[in-house]
User: Fold this.
Amino acid sequence: LFPILIARYRKLMKLPVGPLDALQTREFRALIEQIQQYKESQEISSTELLAAYFMYEWPMQYAQTLSLIQELPQKPSKVLDLTSKGAPGALAALQHGATEVLAIGENEQALKMGADLCGHLGYPISIRTGSREKLSTLSIHSTSWDLIIVSHSLFDLFPSTEEHLSYLQKLLHFLSPDGYLLLVEDSENRTNRRFLQLRDAIATQNISIIAPCLWKGECPALKHKSSPCFAQRPFEKPFMIREIQRAAQINLSSLKMSYLILGSPKASIPPLPDNLYRVVSPPLPTFRGERYFLCGVQGKKTLGTTLKEHPKQSRAFEYLKRGDVISVEEPVTLGEDMQITEKTIVELKAPCDKPVLI
Assistant:
């Protein structure tokens, strides 16, 4: 992608042709200033900010959606990338096998650039522009969608959780019986907390939360002011992303995002087993050895062990990653703490980027 993005960047900025594997020093310094300006405004209000969005935010959002679509139990065919700026989610869906993709947003130039990138890679895409006011009351006349993506835009459309909830309930009715609604925002503390509050509102409305939450009650992370809960995925950074993050002092070693996958109201979703948990932290060193925070069907727990060597049935504990879904049988339990013994069975049910299939 980056040779294409670099060429588009030079064309936007009316720069002479140069090497496609990297920007020259003067070009790169100008880009860093533009990215910092974009991060302050989060708006595409000039050519410079449009260029900055496509050189950094667009590939990051594309990588997030590319990872998250892997968690869907079924791969989508018909996809709506809604309130999209440059259609990064649309390209991710196309690369996962989608055959009909529509991207809708208010910035026509950004949408056309996103469609141009998809076309350059050989993927067909339809686009439609509309103002924020129209997007917030949009009716999509279609039989149904297998996936609707609302990425990094929901909080721009509405000021209140009640309005967000009303909008999402409307979108859910445009889904096929096996369809999903994917919501993605960044992991910054303020945004994450707002996202978790929306998640709690969703949980009270009998809407099926497919991922990442296995627990259907009030979010435990909201009970503490400094306790965010977001997804973290490994990310093999392209050279340009590494250089941008270094120069702009962006401390981001992996993909981090707040997300929800919601199920269609037309679907019948079976209950999950009580012993199912998602790992929601990296391994944490304690005086009793490494421990993990879990959030599962029975709520928030911790999991650890004093075993020096694990028998086969609990060896999965040694390889856990944040986001993995596991089952835990026969632990020693004291309150919210679970301790692995020689009788405990720990089984990986789904890696962090795969669906939970029960």
Remarks:
- The chain has a mean pLDDT of 92.
- Residues 74 and 281 are 27 Å apart (CA to CA).
- The first helix runs from residue 2 to 12.
- The longest strand covers residues 175-185.
